[in-house]
Amino acid sequence: MAFPQTRMRRLRASAGLRGLVRETELSAGRLMLPLFVMDSAPAHPAREPIAAMPGIERLSISAAVADAREAAELGIGAVMLFGIPAEKDEQGSGAFDEDGVVQVAIRAIKQALPELLVVTDVCLCEYTSHGHCGLLRDDGAVDNDATVELLGRTAVSHARAGADLVAPSDMMDGRVGAIRDELDGEGFSETPILAYSAKFASAFYGPFREAAGSTPAFGDRRGYQLDPGNGREAVREAVLDVQEGADMVMVKPALAYGDLISAVKRATRLPLAVYNVSGEYAMVKAAAAAGYLDERATVLEILTSLHRAGADTIISYHAKDAARWLKEQRR
Length: 331
Hints:
Elements: H1 15-20, E1 31-38, E2 47-49, E3 57-59, H2 61-73, E4 78-84, H3 101-112, E5 117-122, H4 144-161, E6 165-168, H5 175-185, E7 194-199, H6 206-212, H7 231-244, E8 248-252, H8 258-268, E9 272-276, H9 278-289, H10 295-309, E10 313-316, H11 319-330
Parallel strand pairs: 1-3, 1-4, 1-10, 4-5, 5-6, 7-8, 8-9, 9-10
Antiparallel strand pairs: 2-3
């Protein structure tokens, strides 16, 4: 109907009215907190600051348990583990070592906090001496099929240690189906897979590479991660992962990819995760430190927008702060 009968501002007039009709409501249970767990000697500090990511640290096993406990107390839905091994090699063997840093961390967190969901990143890049996400051929290219075999071994080792959900992030072709077969064959048919289905070769990953020590020694990852200009290809990747047995899919990065969050959600109809990545986090922290942005309002707006676009789960370094702020809002 025409003005003045239709007045859209009527339901915006007070906080109570706005809350009554709000379409998207963010909650701490929708958030997942990434943790960088390091394999460090007892003499080393339990926490190492990451310069490019203020407020985020590399953690010893005991410190990771402490941060996981804090996340659980804040109502955060899950933690996601990334391993930083003491040593690396050409094969990334630390990724599938039954006593590797992530495997030890899983057992420690699940022993202390059995109800908290522990999700693991399944990839080789943090464990290879060359920094790529798989085994290399003689010509320097990543060998897709040989890498997939090791990813399956890695996922099984995580499940055996007690991981609630495994998340392959390598972008090798066929890895979801291979991991599903390996998990099922080893008696872990109930362990779900969260596939990094639409993972782009993004400039927003820079701070993560400092945090995890995973910068490639040569070249880049454009040969296996998605071109940022290719939306239809991203949807196709997600659909293929569903066909291979993925239980959840992911879009990464998040902030510049709202169109694909919606498109992948429509195409797959599966629970969808998004990764609010390190560069997105660092930009907000830098702008807030300079006084250009209200950090709290900006973070909650970003996370709400991702949920609105179709994300069921949001992996974010802001998770602890956001959970505190949401708790304060409810008082």
